Automatic annotation (TrEMBL):
Residues 1-22 form the signal peptide. GO terms for molecular function: ATP binding; transmembrane receptor protein tyrosine kinase activity. It comes from Myotis myotis (Greater mouse-eared bat). The keyword rRNA processing does not apply. It is a single-pass type I membrane protein. The keyword Kinase applies. Pfam families: Furin-like, GF_recep_IV, Recep_L_domain. It is found in: Membrane. This is receptor protein-tyrosine kinase.
Amino acid sequence: MELAAWYRWGLLLALLPPGAAGTQVCTGTDMKLRLPASPETHLDMLRHLYQGCQVVQGNLELTHLPGNASLFFLQDIQEVQGYVLIAHSQVTQVPLQRLRIIRGTQLFQDSYALAVLDNGDQQDSATPVAGASPGGLRELQLRSLTEILKGGVLMQRNPQLCHQDTVLWTDIFHKNNRLALLQIDTNRSRACKPCSPSCSPSHCWGESSKDCQILTRTLCASGCARCKGSLPTDCCHEQCAAGCTGPKHSDCLACLHFNHSGICELHCPALVTYNTDTFESMPNPEGRYTFGASCVTTCPYNYLSTDVGSCTLVCPLNNQEVTAEDGTQRCEKCSKPCARVCYGLGMEHLREARAVTSANIQEFAGCKKIFGSLAFLPESFEGNPASNTAPLEPEQLRVFETLEEITGYLYISAWPDSLPELSVFQNLQVIRGRVLHDGAYSLTLQGLGIRWLGLRSLRELGSGLALIHRNAHLCFVHTVPWDQLFRNPHQALLHSANRPEDECVGEGLACYPLCAHGHCWGPGPTQCVNCSQFLRGQECVEECRVLQGLPREYVKDRYCLPCHPECQPQNGSVTCLGSEADQCMACAHYKDAPLCVARCPSGVKTDHSFMPIWKFPDEEGTCQPCPINCTHS
């Protein structure tokens, strides 16, 4: 092998992936070519999603980026499960030098694993700076990309782009890739330099000697799917993708099917094995769950484990979601017809519904958990004469007062002017984000007239970003401890164009003084995230009614809880030790040991006796048994 080729393989050796257990996995997006929901925070959104990420579970979409956008956070990405889209951007380069494999589990326009479209032409400002270089992608520099398992390549209208035609794409396409389409436009407005002389043959991703294309297929000996050289001994193991450093299934640069702790396998080890001696199925201590293209010992947070050994976001048919004692969630086969559940948008009969409307809102009446998502759009409150759908009335939103969990996302871009907050969701505790709006957001609040949030019970955003923007009257965005709601390092709050914080404070719109750490969802004692002193019902209070005030209370874990009504309030001492009738310090009426009661038993039958019990109060108010020969009246 020539010295230049050895140098290129040395670069790939330095980029070898760690075992699957140490790999940072992040979610991709699903926006296609649409404009970002919030152009002001678009770059921040991408940074939070991909900082430190090595495997993108979904699509890598880089669109609508200005020329000065710094994309350093993409430099660790090695694998994309879906497609890669670079479009409508002015950046001159995209640092994806470590990207090794595009799997194509999702395809752009149902055909393409890599699409590079409309990058360039427009200047960054209305008045171009004299002598400034035109914007737009100049080189791909995908120097490590050696495998596209499924899907083609589409490159059009990139006037500054060079070297898309010096790449030997047939070497990158997997031999069984039936969608290996090539549509590459080479119309450009600048002259391109040739590949570096060190590139042999003359295939490259850019003009630098570091950008020579590494061939792993077309130079292989007969019978090799991938190789590290032209000799028969250079063949990669059949479970390798993208190339290898040796012949074993532990020498692969990427795995064709599954990565099991750095070893490429056709299947992950089964959770159950069959003992031929005892004719029994036994748990396999080496069993693993499949997660994307990896084998894992447990499913990642927010994913559901199945009996067949996969990690999923939605339980299969005839299965129900259950939560174990340790908090992990799994799918369990129903022993009889599964219990009826509440479905949200995107699920079952609401799969095609765009928004909550008056036509479907009763589907959510009495629901504690919604499997799916909720979206409120202008059409929700405007109605649709064409479908005879009436406008949604504010009082109808009260059906959500019982809601505690959403497995998908909550998206609100329209809300009644008569409601200053979102208090119909006051009991909502968890937004899981198993399905994300635009593939990125579990909570989106935009263009609303609300003044505060009112989501006082919300304790978790299981996945995805929170986007709160263009709510001109909204205060209390910064008084919520968002980091405590998030469950992975790729989550964050993105906000812009809400009411300035100093205006809110100037009007006295601040957290109630008894809110711990100044954290709240809105004004008043019921909107605190936690109380600095005590909690009575839903209100933060200075003290509990332990020694004075009615009804008397006792304290448990900083909660003020009422004594039993039959407890006699005490002066200067506690009235009760708990909420039961046998925990009173003294009785308000009578004592039928050990209970305080409103009256002594009169002809009452106990559970284990056919004889009624008759008692009378003595001078101290204690219930005493009546003599047997008494006549009761």
